[in-house]
């Protein structure tokens, strides 16, 4: 599940033409944290998923959908 969330985050971010740094600024989290989530290194909290979904203007469920 951690890998799916990471890959979906990466795909959603890239589809919007955002760098990790730009997304991190929008979500008010550290850029290195975004990278570690995308690489499946960190398990992300519900609070951070909410921040990321707001920054990407998506429903949080999008992080869990099979692609």
Can you lay out the helices and strands and say which pair or pack?
Elements lengths: L1 H14 L4 H8 L3 H8 L7 H11 L11
Helix pairs in contact: 2-3, 2-4
Please tell me about this protein's structure:
By secondary structure, the protein is mostly helical. The chain has one domain: 434 Repressor (Amino-terminal Domain), CATH 1.10.260.40. It is built from four helices and no strands. The protein starts with a helix and ends in an 11-residue tail after the last helix. The mean pLDDT is 96.
CA radius of gyration is 10 Å
Largest sheet: none
Order of helices and strands: HHHH
Name given to the CATH architecture: Orthogonal Bundle
How many independent structural domains?
Answer: 1
Tell me roughly what share of residues is in helical segments: 55-70%
SS summary, helix count: 4
Query: Under the CATH scheme, which class?
Result: Mainly Alpha
Q: Provide the structure class.
A: mainly alpha
Tell me the β content.
under 5%
């Amino acid at each position: 599940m951690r890998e799916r969330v990471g890959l979906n985050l990466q795909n959603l971010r890239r589809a919007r033409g955002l760098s990790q740094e730009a997304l991190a600024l929008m979500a008010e989290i550290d850029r290195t944290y975004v990278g570690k989530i995308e690489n499946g290194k960190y398990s992300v909290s519900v609070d951070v998923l909410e921040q990321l979904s707001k920054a990407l203007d998506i429903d949080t469920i999008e992080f869990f959908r099979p692609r």
